[in-house]
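STRUCTURE:
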């Protein structure tokens, strides 16, 4: 470890003032403290925002759902409003991390968490995300768990969050507060693909903090769920995952929201799959036909080619589960 200062704030004005001075926000600390211990991250000042009033889960006036940034993962997973309206969110949270971590980690921190690429966490390895321009040890190294979608020559690390996949599928919005006031960013624009700047991971401006994630109203009843495929059944990141939400009326799929995890440098929305579903009647043949499009644009590396087929099968299976033919 190395020396750093710590301050705890109790209102957003104090938080923003500390953030403006270069302080690094921390709440549950389940990712950042690990990275500090490994000296991957070396913030000079930690600003503890865990006492800010951002722990509410509420149904919005339009019938959507707003989850405060400081709601703990376990709280969100157990909340009846979340479970009743968007079970895909509860399931994604319950399949994440461990019970102890879910009791500490917050929703805002969860979507801000950094990649689990082993080379990123090994300060002796080259890594463009940690040290821009240094190279990518994963490319010539071991990359079985890495991304096949949204990669660049600079980086192929996956985004590790499960609930972010549900947020991507449901077309959530991220609410932010910063020195210039409030603003909202579509979830699809909030997490950034690596391109030439893999060190830049979110669309946050200096000193901004996340205040809430909002899921828009969707027609009801919306059937939804999350499937996670991994090397072991608990405390493991996804090799592939699928978040699916379907609105079926009069036997026809009117809306389809589908995203994949474990395969993209960001949670990967699957519009080609969605388009194949809308206007069709649920059937095993439809699920298979739609899932064929799940890996469109994939650029696998040598060790992770298996993810192309695994992704298609994951999406097909979850369509079957949510669509009611399994
Ligand atoms: Fe770093 Fe990305 Fe390469 Fe991993 S894949 S070593 S995070 S640049």
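SEQUENCE:
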């Amino acid at each position: 470890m190395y020396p750093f200062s710590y301050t705890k704030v109790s209102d957003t004005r104090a938080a923003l003032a500390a953030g403006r001075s270069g302080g690094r926000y921390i709440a549950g600390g389940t990712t950042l403290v690990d990275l500090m211990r490994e000296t991957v991250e070396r913030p000079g000042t930690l600003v503890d925002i865990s006492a800010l009033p951002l722990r509410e889960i509420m149904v919005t006036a339009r019938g959507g759902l707003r989850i405060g940034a400081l709601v703990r993962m376990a709280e969100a997973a157990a909340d009846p409003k979340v479970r009743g309206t968007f079970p895909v969110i509860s399931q994604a949270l319950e399949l994440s991390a461990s019970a102890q971590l879910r009791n500490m980690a917050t929703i805002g921190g969860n979507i801000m968490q950094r990649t689990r690429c082993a080379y990123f966490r090994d300060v002796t390895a080259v890594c463009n995300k940690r040290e821009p321009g240094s190279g990518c040890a994963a490319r010539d190294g071991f990359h079985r768990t890495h991304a096949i979608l949204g990669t660049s020559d600079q980086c192929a690390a996956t985004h590790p969050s499960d609930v972010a996949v549900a947020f991507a599928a449901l077309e959530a919005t991220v609410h932010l507060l910063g020195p210039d006031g409030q603003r909202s960013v579509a979830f699809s624009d909030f997490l950034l693909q690596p391109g030439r700047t893999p060190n830049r991971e979110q669309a946050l401006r200096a000193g901004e903090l996340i205040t809430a994630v909002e899921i828009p109203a969707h027609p009801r009843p919306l059937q939804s769920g999350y499937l996670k495929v991994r090397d072991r059944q608990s405390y493991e990141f996804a090799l592939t995952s699928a978040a699916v939400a379907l609105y079926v009326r009069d036997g026809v799929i009117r809306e389809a929201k589908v995203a994949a995890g474990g395969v993209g440098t960001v949670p990967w929305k699957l519009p080609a799959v969605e388009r194949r579903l809308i206007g069709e009647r649920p059937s095993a043949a439809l699920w298979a036909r739609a899932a064929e499009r799940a890996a469109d644009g994939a650029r696998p590396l040598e060790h992770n080619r298996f993810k192309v087929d695994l992704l298609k099968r994951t999406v097909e299976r979850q369509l079957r589960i949510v669509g009611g033919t399994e």
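REMARK: The mean pLDDT is 97.
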